[in-house]
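can u do me a favor
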């Protein structure tokens, strides 16, 4: 690893927005720890892609972030692979509806675990290495952290906690580590059981002042801005939502 190369752990980075974040960081001379849980094929394909660009610059690590022992092992692997870590991006997130009156304890544990508990304990585990490196933490929040999404109460609660996590850690880890968050709007449409109809997509786009869906690269570029070009910014949440949060 060259003297100018930094190391980033991006959780949930096998595909979609997480993979785009990883590609942009890699292009900015970061080595990448690609975390995944179920998406092994996607993670390994991404690692091969990045290593073909720059040898020994990416590695994939499997972990269930709701399993504390696996979470600790992920942090250990990430910090030891290239003897240090400069950036933690808490991107992994569970998202699905939990209508009030029908939600269960497993829903609570899963949504709070992936969106709030795991980012907290990964930050705690990596804090010494991030402090040594004068590094950064970026949490992926949500515009629904402040204005709840109907039928998604637990998710909204978890993201509200994620917002306060960002502010709390910014205070706890200052002055050596900066902690910020990004609140995406409509970037990629939900998949599988959360898939939206064309009518629902059109209704959502009508609520966005810029009248269009964002791209995964918009989130990746915002992360690079906060990491590389905002040395006096910490404890802030940057909405990358086309103005959607103005109209909720």
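np, heres the sequence
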């Amino acid at each position: 690893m060259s003297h100018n190369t930094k190391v980033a752990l991006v959780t949930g980075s096998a595909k979609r927005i997480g993979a785009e974040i990883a590609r942009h960081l890699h292009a900015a001379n970061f080595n990448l720890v690609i975390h995944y849980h179920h998406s092994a094929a996607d993670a390994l394909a991404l690692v091969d892609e990045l290593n073909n660009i720059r040898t020994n610059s990416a590695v994939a690590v499997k972990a269930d972030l709701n399993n504390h022992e696996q979470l600790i092992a992920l942090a250990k692997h990430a910090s030891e692979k290239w003897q240090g870590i400069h950036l933690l991006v808490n991107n992994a997130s569970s998202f699905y509806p939990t209508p009030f009156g029908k939600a269960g304890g497993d829903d609570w544990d899963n949504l709070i675990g992936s969106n709030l508990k795991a980012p907290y304990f990964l930050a705690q585990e990596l804090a010494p290495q991030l402090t040594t490196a004068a590094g950064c933490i970026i949490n992926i929040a949500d515009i629904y952290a402040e204005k709840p999404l109907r039928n998604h109460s637990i998710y909204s609660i978890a993201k509200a906690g994620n917002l306060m996590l960002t502010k709390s850690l910014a205070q706890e880890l200052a002055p050596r580590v900066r902690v910020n968050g990004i609140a995406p709007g409509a970037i990629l449409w939900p998949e599988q059981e959360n898939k939206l109809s064309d009518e629902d997509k059109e209704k959502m786009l009508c609520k966005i002042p810029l009248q269009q869906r964002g791209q995964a690269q918009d989130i990746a570029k915002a992360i690079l801005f906060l990491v590389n070009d905002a040395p006096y910014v910490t404890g802030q949440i940057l909405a990358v939502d086309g103005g959607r949060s103005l109209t909720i």
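The chain has a mean pLDDT of 92. hope that helps!!
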